[in-house]
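Before the break, one more example. Copy the sequence into your notebook; we will annotate it together after we see the structure.
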Amino acid sequence: MSDHRFVNVASLPAPVGPYSPGVAFERLVFVSGQGATDPATGQLAGSDIETQTAQCLRNVQAILQAAGSDLQHVLRCGEFLMDMAEFPKMNAVYGQMFGAHRPARTTIQAAALPGHGLRVEIDAIAYIPR
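Here is what the structure looks like once it is written out:
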């Protein structure tokens, strides 16, 4: 019987609550919602949706890599936007980051996100390749 394990990345900001950045179970990796904090500065990567989307996905990628996976193994993403009018700009960056890989996805407009100036948060479910 396989147990789950917690996935942490020392360079990423600590979670803002009692949860793990990622949890791996057998060959699946569940990544908690990631904001756009730049681990090099500890600050929001930028104020625009494009910069924030790219940073969110880099943070997701760091957790996936720590678990033995990567963006090309993502099965599903959840995206939470402060303003659905920014969807086209977010979508363009998302497409660039994933390339030809097309995970299942849900995108919603949120009433608020946990961080002043945060425009987007992204979570993911991926698998660890053999």
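The chain has two helices and eight strands. The longest strand covers residues 74-81. Try to locate both features in your own notes.
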